[in-house]
Amino acid sequence: METAIVAGGCFWCTEAVFRDVVGVESVESGYIGGDVENPTYKQVCSGSTGHAEAIKVHYDPQVISYAEILDVFMGTHDPTQLNRQGNDVGTQYRSAIFPLDDAQRAEAEAAIARSNEENDGRVVTTIEGPAQWYPAEEYHQEYWEGEGQRNPYCLAVIPPKLMKLRKSFQAKVKA
Question: Where do the catalytic residues lie (predicted)?
Fold first, then answer.
């Protein structure tokens, strides 16, 4: 198994997308890229810690490559919105890739270049790190599968992202 860390707005939404991707064994929501140790959700939401809401994806590189993980990531959120995704505004909702080594950094640069071709050069996704990962509180994990199904925000935002995944990345969706 290998690991990818990406931040694309609300981690509930990004986690829901990647739980449906072939080759993905697990997804963990968390915080990365800030300057406070062991931040809480409330602290991160305040925008004062510098962290991004992010996901850590454990995947099988024999089934899906890191480049494909990044293409799904770039294609299922809006990488042209600076420090926001829809109604979620603040640096904690920034679009960022956190490579774990030089090879991932090179792939991240290539993924951003590919996305820039599709988005008229307007991609604002950053490449950050290395940075310390902090798992989010337990109630954030697998949020869409539970509480998210009753959350009006999630009901408005997640289904369109899942539809985009199924339409744009049919071969990468779990049966």
Answer: 10
